[in-house]
Design goal:
By secondary structure, the chain is mainly alpha-helical. It has 2 domains: 28 residues; 44 residues. The protein is built from 2 helices and 2 strands, in the order αββα. A two-stranded antiparallel ribbon has the order 1-2. Strand 1 and strand 2 form a beta hairpin. The radius of gyration is 17 Å and the shape is elongated.
Length: 75
Amino acid sequence: MEGNTGKWIIIAGVCITLFGLIWYYWGDKLSFLGRLPGDIRIEKENFRFYFPITTMILVSLVINLILRIIGSLGK
């Protein structure tokens, strides 16, 4: 294992903890996530299908931006 592996695991843990705290305290203000235009939602009597494609793209872009910023700080 490289010497940086432990550092990245700690950073990942801190990021997950921060995300959890944000979701816990401000989750009601983030209720639009999962209900964006483009999210597929089909609800019938005994069937529910939910595919949040727009939300997944948005979250992916935010994570990508954060990782690029962290990566540029390490250089």
